[in-house]
Fold:
Amino acid sequence: MKKVIAIITALLLLLCGCVGQDEGLFGRKYDKDQEYANKQLNSLLKAIENKDEKVVKSLFSKNVLSSDFEFETSVQELFAYFKGVAPKWDSQCPQIIDEENETNQKIIVTSSYDIQTSESAYRICIKSCRKDTADYNNEGIWSLYIILLSEDNDLECTYWGDNKYTPGINIGVPMPLET
Structure:
């Protein structure tokens, strides 16, 4: 019986750590990644609201910006797609992927948000690199997905776009339906 209680307690602590507690199973590392993701989203939303292409560009990884995706066209489409002011958001639990070895530390943060503006509701998924000691040009947003809440296929699940994390800005991409 004590083992069952211990397992249930451990699971509860794990879940509490995932919903943004100051401490918890993930400890300070989780808090640092959550803070990074939230600051990034706040900066992005302010830039979209102000239609500030320079700020949006500054949030993206230099390596992604130098890839094939057409940033200027994509950011203008984003500005046209996002309607309303004073966005309020609800954070989902970010996925945190650490890849470490003796010569490199790479921290990838993938987060999802439900956002309500004065005119519409959206879902956003952001995959970004918080730290890469081997290539600092990887740091920043790699992939941004945004969709109207009403157009998403599964409102019960956290929004992860199409789970492909295509570099750049991806607009109106619903989550694939599971078969």
Residues 2-171 form a domain with the Nuclear Transport Factor 2; Chain: A, fold (CATH 3.10.450.50).
